[in-house]
Amino acid sequence: MPDDTVFYYNIKTAEQSSEVLRKAEEELETICEELDEVMKRPARGFANGLNRSMYHLSMSTKKFNVTDDCIHCGQCERICPERAIELREGKPVWVKSRCIKCTACINRCPVSAIQYGNGTKKRNRYVNPILANGN
User: Fold this and answer.
1) On the CB side of 87, how many CA atoms lie within 13 Å of its CA?
2) How far apart are alpha carbons 55 and 34 in whole angstroms?
3) Euclidean distance between the first and final Cα of the chain, in Å?
4) pTM value?
5) What confidence tens digit (pLDDT) does each residue in 50-83 have?
6) Residue 115 CB neighbours (<10 A)
7) 43: exposed, middle or buried (C-beta count within 10 Å: 0-12, 13-18, 19+)?
8) Cβ contacts of residue 126 below 8 Å, gap of 6+?
């Protein structure tokens, strides 16, 4: 699937993402069957506990920042699935205990004003075509 995790690397172009989605659509039935099987397996053991611990450690919101390009539109606050963004003086502030770093705020900011550290400034943004119409 197309990736929107702009934190670590540059994401695919819109054309590349469309091709990935087209191929995935062809394989959707097989993917769903495989996921059903995986979800039936119980998650247990040391590795599962370690994964949960690493997940919580990785949830820091300290690197989120907003450039002066912010137009104070509130899009980030409205689209955050966890309601982890609050506007203060017109700019977003992340509520650490709720943010799951889904990247919706970064990828859907209309002026690319939201960054994560310095690494996301020159990276592509991706919005799934299903969501691109404001859903």
Assistant:
1) 15
2) 24
3) 19
4) 0.61
5) 666 666 666 688 899 999 999 999 999 999 999 9
6) 20
7) exposed
8) 2, 3, 4, 6, 11, 12, 14, 17, 107
List % helix, strand, coil for the chain (3-state, nearest 5). Answer: 35, 10, 55
Largest separation between any pair of C-alpha atoms in the chain: 48
- For tokens 């599962």, what's the residue? 48
Cα 77 to Cα 92: distance, rounded to the nearest angstrom? 7
Residue length, the chain? 135
Interval 38-50 mean pLDDT:
64
Domains of the chain as residue ranges with CATH: 42-116 (3.30.70.20)
d(CA 79, CA 74): 9
CA distance 110 to 113: 8
CB atoms within 10 A of CB 105: 23
State the DSSP H helix or E strand holding residue 123, giving kind and residue range, or none if neither.
Answer: none
